[in-house]
Amino acid sequence: MDKQKNVANQWYWLADCYRDWGRYQQAVDYQLKELAIRQQLDHQTGVALAYYQLGRIYQVWGKYKDAIKSYQQSRELYQQLDKQKDVANLWYWLADCYRNWGKYQQAVDCQLKDLAIRQQLDDQTGIGNAYYQLDRIYQDWVDTPRPKGAGILGSTRQLAQPGRSQEE
Length: 168
Fold this sequence. Notes:
The chain has 8 helices and no strands. The protein has 168 residues and is mainly alpha-helical. The protein folds into 2 domains: 1-82, Serine Threonine Protein Phosphatase 5, Tetratricopeptide repeat (Alpha Horseshoe); 84-141, Alpha Horseshoe (Serine Threonine Protein Phosphatase 5, Tetratricopeptide repeat).
């Protein structure tokens, strides 16, 4: 069992190196090998971490749908394990991914969930980071190119309408 954990750790580090190197497909391949071992070992925290790492690879690669799916799987596992700080971290990464993708309302929604958990945990550093992330989202949202002649107030009012999907 310890040998398998060590093998999983090595797959993790290889995936991490390939991600940093920009060779994303290899990074995904190695990360999936780590995930498979963690699942075989029934190491739920390790499985949750492996899904998170997959999300990071996909996000850097620009494959946002895959990143969101991986982050959600990680968040759900951490929720089942009652690891609230990790759940908050995953809401943060979901918000970051949606912000990178230009889906600002979804980013705000996720970031507010992160903030709520940080407040429940009285995690002052996390609360500060959550507000910082909200500011980044709003800054990117405001800086989004708009049609010529559309004033900033009109554009943001239109974007912020309840029930309005970003994909419209």
